[in-house]
Amino acid sequence: MLGYWRRLNRIGVFDMTVGSMGPDAATVLAEADEWQRIMALEGEKELAVYLDIKSPHTYLAVRPSLEVARDYRVRLNFLPYNLSYATMGITTSVEPDMKRRPPNAAADRKARMYYAAAREYAALQGLPFRSPQHLLDTLPANKALLFAKRQGLEVPFLMRVYVLGWGSGWRDYEVGSHEQLRGTLANVGANSDGFEAFMAPDGAGDEELASCMARAESTGFTGVPHYVFDDDASGRRLGLFGREHLALIREKFHAEGLARTPEVRPDFSHAWHGAPAQR
Hints:
Elements: H1 4-11, H2 16-20, H3 23-29, H4 32-39, E1 45-51, H5 56-59, H6 62-71, E2 74-80, H7 85-88, H8 105-125, H9 139-149, H10 154-167, H11 178-187, H12 195-199, H13 204-217, E3 226-231, E4 236-241, H14 246-255
Parallel strand pairs: 1-2
Antiparallel strand pairs: 1-3, 3-4
């Protein structure tokens, strides 16, 4: 397989925007070959990971989640879920100006802390991060994720959108722009034939996203990241909300004898500092 950056140069779509953001963005995106290697590993079980691009805490969850499949015989299935800002309590309504309208002072403090906590954890992972100036319409991006997934490019696409978006506080990336999303697909090597039809209202993208959301809700969905897997210990399908549950998930897979090597340990810190050297 061609190296990620060599592939971009070969097709003539290297995105200098990443370089202009500083070394953190380029360093993170240079992991793309390793992400693809991990996603191609064989697994005996599936771990579904539901994300919404508007959530900074799902930005923080992608790489630590990949560590599960790196260490255990588990296949990762990244899937989108389109959250409602109003249901989350971040705003009372979403208007055309996309300004946040918190219902009260307590909700405003909660929203600010939501982003402040994400900023601290992003720094630990070496991820560029700025809080957004406005609410985000991530419906198009969540559908575009499914389009990339059809070509096995969901993780490079997802992380490129995240790094460019959250890295600038969504000042330099318009997450609702079909043109910009198409450019990102090109930059990760995807074929965009059929993209507009997939993204059209009531098209295949809407249908697939609705199916993803229904499946998530059937497993007790309350927020993202939402993890779903078959738990042998309880004999049932288990759904867990939050990146903090990665340690528990690893413990369960370890107890099932799914470690890829004897050196793997289930211990995993919520204050994860980034991917180890490739092994």
